[in-house]
Design a protein that fits this description.
By secondary structure, this protein is of the alpha+beta class. A hairpin with a 2-residue loop joins β8 (241-247) and β9. It has helices at residues 6-13, 28-38, 171-181, 191-196, 207-218, and strands at residues 19-25, 81-91, 100-115, 118-131, 134-146, 165-167, 224-231, 241-247, 250-254, 260-268. The relative contact order is 0.17. α2 (28-38) runs antiparallel to α3 (171-181). The longest helix has 12 residues, at 207-218. A ten-stranded antiparallel β-sheet has the order 1-3-4-5-2-7-10-9-8-6. It is 18% helix and 35% strand.
Length: 269
């Protein structure tokens, strides 16, 4: 187990309050490609704001795992694994395609935890997309950094599949989502890397991809006001995922072994 230096933790926490601003034209083509990648109509694409303000590192700014190199806006945390752990989103107003928007990102917290799973660092980032000075989307994203850990076994399917709509993405689906979101993390398309370097039994389905599918399920009841999700377990290519609406305010993605992989709370306008 890695024992983190308290001085380094304090250094990483000094990033709290750091702010980054970007402006961008919200292009219809970016939205169309994102919608195609998640199997939705562009006019009703769930979590459509993820089509915009994509990361844009140069080749020499990309790390061995396919993520942008450590440092830059986010603190230079040394734990080797980084994952998107969850998000809380509020839909303030519709954004206008073909018009300029501004994204303001602020690091709001850096938290260290230590337990049975080893050392963990959580970074909270608040993001607001605005047009003409009025917020359209506010989102609080959570990233977790952790140690390498032991290899992860492939889940064993339960005798009875979980309740819910079956979703079984393939390699092309994962590639298209990576392309539409400019996500270079190799666990989603490079199987030898995912298995030999990061200890997974297969390619990993993107957390945001799963979140978009859950949001789409929730949107069948009406337009969303809030959508908050938390990743709980990885999902792997080659096994079905079961998308379940258990109540008017909750949707869940279950693995084939019955384990909840992602839960989301929703509210409606």
């Amino acid at each position: 187990m890695t024992i983190l230096d308290p001085a380094r933790i304090d250094e990483w926490r000094s990033a709290i309050g750091k702010t980054e601003r970007r402006t961008e034209m919200l292009e219809a083509e970016s939205l169309r490609r994102f919608a195609l990648a998640i199997g939705a109509e562009a006019t009703h694409a769930p979590l459509a704001h993820w089509a915009f303000f994509l990361p844009g590192p140069a080749d020499d700014e990309i790390g061995q795992d396919g993520h942008p190199r450590r440092g830059g806006f986010l603190p230079d945390i040394t734990l080797p694994r980084r994952m998107f752990a969850g998000s809380s989103i509020r839909f303030e107003a519709p954004f206008r395609i073909g018009a300029e928007a501004e994204l303001v990102s602020t690091i709001t917290d850096v938290t260290h935890k230590s337990g049975r799973s080893g050392e963990l660092l959580f970074v909270e980032v608040e993001k607001t997309i605005s047009q003409d000075g009025a917020p359209c989307i506010t989102e609080r994203q959570s990233y977790v950094y952790r140690e390498e850990g032991a290899p992860v076994p492939m889940p064993i399917p339960a005798a009875e599949p979980p309740e819910g709509e079956e979703w079984t993405p393939n390699e092309v689906n994962l590639f298209r989502f990576s392309a539409a979101t400019f996500n270079g993390h190799r666990i989603h398309y490079d199987r030898p890397y995912a298995t030999s370097e990061e200890g997974y039994p297969a390619l990993v389905i993107h957390g945001p991809f799963t979140a978009a599918k859950l949001a789409g399920l929730a949107m069948r009841r009406g337009p969303l006001e809030t959508f908050s999700f938390r990743a709980m377990a990885p999902l792997f290519l080659g096994q079905p995922v079961f998308l379940h609406s258990s109540a008017t305010d909750e949707v869940t993605a279950f693995r084939c072994d019955g384990t909840p992989a992602m839960t989301a709370k929703v509210s409606y306008k």
